[in-house]
Design a protein that fits this description.
about 10% strand, alpha/beta
Length: about 475
């Protein structure tokens, strides 16, 4: 896939088009397409035109960057000063932060253009984006299908070309899984590589902001623009200076394959990844078998830790300080109870209750403490695997996009769709989802490339090989590697 950002940046710098003109074109497309797919929940067109004028000034002065003047979207849980940021929840209706998230502050300084905030599962809790208080976004590939979640609106906007790129958040796969469902690229950086300041928290030890784009090249450009240490985020870390090098040379690369990632995976998805692997092997890569038994228990560990952290993080929404407040109460306790009952959706309340339960007296040791110990086992087994290989290949999800409404009656399977992505968040590793062909219904299949912590550049470069060889589009090669 050709780099959308590079192409637009070249046109802007050459004077073929101004950022103002480009922004007007994108706004027209958003107005035309969004009613059918519900990707955007808050438009920021007035802000976009101001951003575009600033960008045109930077370009005229020769101070532009690759992202100057390029229209983007942000997930609705990334804070934007004076602009609606609601996490697609009734309890934050009308909320406008008084500060910018660090990632948006960095992009805005470069002259990026914000078109609006995009749809998501309420408070990023879900795998289909159907828990949004604004209704579900629809998959542009097939509007009878979901976008995945929780960053489903960003995925839909990028897929439909009503944003050149977007930023999502990934707690257990919320960038990678919707990228897989919509046939785009989704990159989850190492924990700490990108500041979380201004990201409304779900699970603080798991959350990470990252780019969702049409190409690996674009993902690298956006990643370079937002990464690095931030004094406002004590968990952030410094990253290598300069541009992330993309060469696509995989000769000598050791690709790890763990059976745990492929158990029970449908033949269509397995075959697509086998074909992709075969292309890497023909280019000089080597397949290495690795064992990680703890992968089988990573999913319950993730849900215990994530829900425990969510119950703590969401305790601040009480109707007193900001957001929605219930009416018809006789005292403070009743007001808080009614506000949280009316303001939170079913899925969020379910996870708060689960999190409170595993942290409660008498159950803390049995559930939360044990999950934290097993988390260390998952981290240790992944670390041991990376002593034998450079990257791991795995499915992004064990399924392609669910039908709209499917999660209502079969919610267990939507939870299970995170089984391949959550180990990455548990260990704080970088991972990218790239398109890997389609199933019999024409729905995109995603393949995940996982790297060592802070080896983000290698993950991007490994994915770049697939891009420059057009493997991401078809994955149709002869002689697949049998998994």
């Amino acid at each position: 896939m050709k780099s959308v950002i590079s192409s637009l940046s070249q046109k802007l710098r050459s004077g073929e088009i101004t950022s103002r003109q480009l922004t007007e074109k994108y706004i027209a497309e958003v107005r035309a397409q969004n009613p059918a797919i519900n990707a955007y929940v808050h438009y920021t067109f007035e802000e976009a035109m101001k951003n575009a004028e600033y960008a045109d000034g930077l370009i005229a002065e020769g101070k532009g960057t690759p992202l100057t003047g390029i229209p983007l979207t942000l997930k609705d849980n990334i804070a934007t000063d004076g602009l609606l940021t609601t996490c697609c929840s009734k309890i934050l209706s009308g909320f406008k932060p008084y500060y910018d998230a660090t990632v948006w502050s960095k992009l805005k300084a470069q002259g990026a253009v914000l078109l609006g905030k995009t749809n998501m599962d309420e408070f990023a809790m879900g795998s289909t984006s159907e828990s949004s208080c604004y209704g579900a976004p629809l998959n542009p590939v097939d509007k009878t299908r979901v976008t995945g979640g929780s960053s489903g609106g960003v995925a839909a906007a990028v897929c439909a070309d009503i944003a050149a790129y977007g930023l999502g958040s990934d707690t257990g796969g919320s960038i990678r899984q919707p990228a897989s469902f919509c046939g785009i690229v989704g990159f989850k950086p190492s924990y700490g590589a990108v500041s979380r300041y201004g990201l409304i928290a779900y699970g603080s030890s798991l959350d990470q902001i990252g780019p969702m784009t049409k190409s690996v090249t674009d993902a690298a450009i956006v990643y370079d623009a937002i990464r690095g240490v931030d004094r406002a985020d004590g968990t952030s870390c410094s990253t290598p200076a300069g541009k992330t090098p993309l060469k696509g040379d995989v000769k000598g690369l050791k690709i790890g394959v763990a059976d745990g990632y492929f158990d029970g995976i449908p033949a269509e998805i397995r075959n697509a990844i086998e074909d992709m692997l075969a292309a890497y092997v023909r280019a000089g890569a080597e397949i290495v078998r690795v064992s990680m038994p703890a992968l089988k228990i990573a999913l319950p560990v993730y849900y215990i830790i994530a829900c425990a952290e969510a119950s703590s993080n969401l305790g601040r929404y009480d109707g007193i300080r900001y957001g929605y407040r219930a009416s018809g109460y006789t005292g403070v306790d009743e007001m808080i109870t009614k506000t949280r009952t009316e303001g939170f959706g079913k899925e969020v309340k379910k996870r708060i209750m689960l999190g409170t339960y595993v942290l409660s007296s008498g159950y803390f040791d049995a559930y939360y403490k044990k999950a934290c110990l097993i988390r260390k086992t998952v981290e240790a087994q992944l670390s041991e695997a990376f002593k034998k290989c450079d990257v791991l290949f795995a499915p992004t999800a064990p399924v392609t996009a669910f039908a709209v409404g499917y999660s209502g009656g079969n919610s267990v399977e939507t939870y299970l769709s995170d089984v391949c992505t959550v180990p990455v968040n548990i260990a704080g590793l970088p991972a990218i989802s790239i398109p890997c062909g389609s199933d019999k219904n024409g729905l995109p299949i995603g393949m995940q490339i996982i790297g060592k912590k802070f080896d983000d550049a290698r993950v991007l470069d490994t994915a770049y090989f697939a891009e420059i060889n057009n493997l991401s589009q078809t994955a149709e090669v002869e002689g697949g590697v049998k998994l």
